C-alpha cells in the first residue's frame, strides 16, 4: 500500500503552508494579542478559500474529506498554530450544521452558504465552570414549552463567545434530565449575552469567555441533535 500523498493532496497541503508562511508567520506573535488583526486574517483565510472545507459542494463548500481538511490545518499550522486551530474549530462547527443532522430545519440550512464563505461566524458551547471533561455534569438546560425551547444556564470558556453569529449549544433536555441536546441559537436571540473574556497564557487574540442564557427562547425547530452525548 502506498502511504505517500498523491499530487492533489500534496497540492492542498502546499497551498495552505505557502499562504501561512507568507501571510501568517510574519504576524504570528501579534496574532496572539490583537483581536482586530486576528479577525482580518480570518477574513483573509476565507478569501483564500480555506473556509467551508467539510461543507458539501452543493451547499457552497469545498466538499473535502477528513484527510484533505487535515492537510489544510497542518499546512496552516506552519505559520500560526492559533489560526490553524480557529479555522479547524469554525469548519467543524459549520460542518455539524451542514451535514451531521438529518431533518435539519430549512431556515437553519439557509445560513450554510454564509458559513461556507466565512461571512458568518459560529461557536460551540458545551463547557461550564463545573463541567469540562465531564459533560454529564452540565447544569444548563432547555425546557420544551409548546413550539419553543426555553434555555437557562451559563457556559464558560467558549471560543468566539463575543464574535459568533450562531451558537451550537449543548444543554440538558429539561432541568432534571440526563439526556443532552444540541440547539442552534443565533447570537441576537433575546436572553443571550456574552460574559467576560478569560485571560490565558497564550492565544489572547481570540475571545474565549462565558455565555449567559436567561429564559432564552428558540423555536423547537432549532433542535440540531437529540443525541447530545454522542455529539459532545
Ligand atoms: C483556549 C480554550 C478554548 C476553549 N474553547 C471551548 C469552546 O469553544 N467550547 C467549549 O465548549 N469549550 C471550550 N473550552 C473548554 C475545554 O473544552 C475544556 O477546558 C476541556 O473540556 C477541559 O475541561 P476543564 O478545563 O474544566 O478541565 P477538567 O475537566 O477540570 O480537567 C482537568 C484535568 O483533570 C483531568 N481529569 C478530569 N477528569 C478526570 C477523571 N475522571 N480521571 C482522570 N483525570 C481526569 C483532565 O484530563 C485534565 O487534565 C476551551 C478551553 C480553552 C482553554
Automatic annotation (TrEMBL):
<dbReference type="InterPro" id="IPR037069">
    <property type="entry name" value="AcylCoA_DH/ox_N_sf"/>
</dbReference>
<protein>
    <recommendedName>
        <fullName>Acyl-CoA dehydrogenase</fullName>
    </recommendedName>
</protein>
<dbReference type="InterPro" id="IPR009100">
    <property type="entry name" value="AcylCoA_DH/oxidase_NM_dom_sf"/>
</dbReference>
<dbReference type="InterPro" id="IPR006091">
    <property type="entry name" value="Acyl-CoA_Oxase/DH_mid-dom"/>
</dbReference>
<feature type="domain" description="Acyl-CoA dehydrogenase/oxidase N-terminal">
    <location>
        <begin position="7"/>
        <end position="118"/>
    </location>
</feature>
<feature type="domain" description="Acyl-CoA oxidase/dehydrogenase middle">
    <location>
        <begin position="123"/>
        <end position="216"/>
    </location>
</feature>
<dbReference type="Pfam" id="PF02771">
    <property type="entry name" value="Acyl-CoA_dh_N"/>
</dbReference>
<dbReference type="GO" id="GO:0050660">
    <property type="term" value="F:flavin adenine dinucleotide binding"/>
</dbReference>
<dbReference type="InterPro" id="IPR046373">
    <property type="entry name" value="Acyl-CoA_Oxase/DH_mid-dom_sf"/>
</dbReference>
<dbReference type="InterPro" id="IPR013786">
    <property type="entry name" value="AcylCoA_DH/ox_N"/>
</dbReference>
<dbReference type="GO" id="GO:0003995">
    <property type="term" value="F:acyl-CoA dehydrogenase activity"/>
</dbReference>
<dbReference type="Pfam" id="PF02770">
    <property type="entry name" value="Acyl-CoA_dh_M"/>
</dbReference>
Amino acid at each position: 500500500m502506498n502511504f505517500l500523498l498523491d499530487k492533489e493532496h500534496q497540492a492542498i497541503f502546499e497551498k495552505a503552508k505557502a499562504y501561512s508562511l507568507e501571510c501568517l508567520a510574519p504576524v504570528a506573535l501579534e496574532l496572539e494579542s490583537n483581536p482586530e488583526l486576528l479577525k482580518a486574517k480570518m477574513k483573509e483565510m476565507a478569501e483564500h478559500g480555506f473556509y467551508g472545507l467539510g461543507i458539501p459542494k452543493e451547499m457552497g463548500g469545498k466538499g473535502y474529506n477528513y484527510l484533505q481538511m487535515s492537510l489544510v490545518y497542518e499546512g496552516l499550522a506552519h505559520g500560526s498554530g492559533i489560526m490553524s486551530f480557529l479555522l479547524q474549530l469554525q469548519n467543524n462547527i459549520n460542518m455539524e450544521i451542514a451535514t451531521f443532522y438529518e431533518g435539519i430545519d430549512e431556515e437553519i440550512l439557509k445560513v450554510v452558504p454564509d458559513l461556507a464563505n466565512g461571512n458568518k461566524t459560529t461557536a460551540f458551547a458545551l463547557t461550564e465552570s463545573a463541567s469540562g471533561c465531564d459533560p454529564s455534569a452540565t447544569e444548563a438546560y432547555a425546557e420544551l414549552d409548546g413550539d419553543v425551547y426555553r434555555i437557562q444556564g451559563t457556559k464558560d470558556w467558549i471560543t468566539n463567545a463575543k464574535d459568533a453569529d450562531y451558537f451550537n449549544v449543548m444543554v440538558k433536555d429539561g432541568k432534571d434530565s440526563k439526556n443532552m441536546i444540541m440547539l442552534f441559537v443565533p447570537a441576537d436571540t433575546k436572553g443571550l449575552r456574552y460574559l467576560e473574556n478569560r485571560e490565558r497564557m497564550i492565544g489572547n487574540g481570540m475571545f474565549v469567555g462565558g455565555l449567559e442564557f436567561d429564559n432564552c427562547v428558540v423555536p423547537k425547530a432549532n433542535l440540531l441533535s437529540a443525541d447530545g452525548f454522542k455529539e459532545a
